[in-house]
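DM between two lab members

TW: hey, do you still have the GIY-YIG nuclease family protein entry open?
JB: yeah, one sec
JB: this one, 275 aa:
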Amino acid sequence: MASRGVASYNAPEVKPPTKKSMPTAFVQGFRVLLQEALAEKDVESQKKLTGCVGVYAFYDYDREPIYVGQTWESFGIRIRRHLTGQRSDTLAYRILDPFEVAEVELWPTEGLRAKFAAMSKLTTDKNELKKIGDEKRKALDAIEYSVYLAAIAGSKYHAILNEKIPPVSTPVALPASQRFVLVPPKLREEREHPDVRIARRAETLARVAAVAHERGEVSSGLRRVIVIQAVRLADLAAARLAYAEGRSRPSPTAIDVKELVGNVMAESNDEDADD
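TW: and the structure you got?
JB:
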């Protein structure tokens, strides 16, 4: 019997579908919301966020921070690499599951970019330009580290899925941020179902562990991510079991994350981890 489903390969020849129509409804909706978020304007510079530089953070369905990063390219380029299947080391190493990202928060630093661009125009001396470049990098590092510290403090695990901890910097006041939901409301209930998320976390854990096995020589940061992902999996699975048995959800302190992962405030000395 011929198949009559939407994925039928027995249909007569028709005009090929557009690439945008090929993904599932969830992926299409997710990308629309991401595009709308990046089309919003930075309050300070009035520039579209897609072209802004700065610091960003991802959150899961429980509004739990899971990843912090920075970019001097643009939010549009960097975040799409993470969330739309384009290559990034974070995706290549299976550290971040894009389907676990429910919200994104952006801290644009266009003022910082303008400041250092103006400074660079005042000199052609290579040493001075290098000094300006170093100051520029340190300025964004300080903002990223401050966001990272806030994420660690706001996480019930006091740990997130960064393979590389941002360079230790003196905490600074953060620029205004903008936060966006990326999950289509009509599809949220299914996507955030605990059983779906448990399965996704288990798969992600298996993949990142396979990377460590296959590559052999990996950073301590990647091995730390494996432990944190295992903690996230165990916590959600235990909560689901407790719900099934009519018990209260286990306390986050039931797992001693600090004892398991060690210091998450500064990178160890053996790191060559990629961002």
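TW: got it. The chain has one domain: 22-261. The chain is about 45% helix and 10% strand.
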